[in-house]
Amino acid sequence: MDECRRLARRITEARFVMLFTGAGMSTGSGIPDFRGPNGLWKNWRPVYFQEFMTDAEARKRHWEFKSSGWEQFRDAQPNDGHRALAELEKRGHLHCLVTQNIDGLHQLAGSNAESVIELHGTNRAIECVQCHQRMEPDPVYQEFAQTGEPPACSCGGWLKPATVSFGQAMPETALKQSFRNAEQSQVVIAIGSTLEVQPAALVPLKAQEAGAFYAIINRGPTAHDRYADLRLEGDASQLLVGLLDEVVRLS
To answer: What sign has the CA pseudo-torsion 158, 163, 164, 170?
Structure first.
């Protein structure tokens, strides 16, 4: 509790607080992570972007993988941790939220969409890889379920969930915006991430290098533990609820 109170004090005293969230943020909402003991990559081999673009079987395999988890993503609801972060923002203590997650649960919990930067895209839209038109997912998944064929856009390009695949370039604007915000942060908190995936994991490190107080909240070790000024071990949702309580008490 002393460490939680220490972090809460840092938050209340900072002019600019950035959060960086990963898959551990959403496991409490029933969404599995990718690299954990029961992670998705234990049973599925990811399809690389170049494979998707050039290999019909790879495209089909990608759509089968995405279809298998679509309803779980679609129906997932924010957990107490998501709601705690939204409340911190409403109280003026959170200024930027960078996420590796593709589930959209921060926005559903009430976080301002303008404050959320999705580095790995979103599972809540389908995008054409050629013309970049976006559309609602349900009708496209229904089409694939009926035909078994990877869907195509009216322009002739392949349709794909609007997430960043392995080997696919990350959205340049989102990455640049994240680094700009990192450089002006007084506090950066990484939550529910092993901090191994590059270049996303460089974002909180950039803030730390620029002088920000760096806190990590996670269940299990991370690649950045040696850089952290403070480390909270445990369930992200529970710890964030406790952190919010401390911030409210200090405000």
So the answer is: positive
Active site residues: 120
Amino acid making up residue 154: S
pTM: 0.92
State pLDDT tens for residues 51-77.
999 999 999 999 999 999 899 989 999
Cα 251 from Cα 242, distance rounded (Å): 14
Class of 35-75+125-163 in CATH = alpha beta
Encode pLDDT of 180-219 as tens digits.
999 999 999 999 999 999 999 999 999 999 999 999 999 9
**CA–CA distance, 146 with 156 (Å, rounded to integer):** 20
Q: SS3 helix, strand, coil % of the chain, rounded to 5?
A: 45, 20, 40
Question: For 1-31+79-120+172-251, CATH number?
Answer: 3.40.50.1220
Q: How far is CA 151 from CA 19, 67, 141, 168, in A?
A: 36, 12, 9, 19
In a 10 Å sphere around its CB, with 0-12 CB exposed, 13-18 middle and 19+ buried, how is residue 143 labelled?
Answer: middle
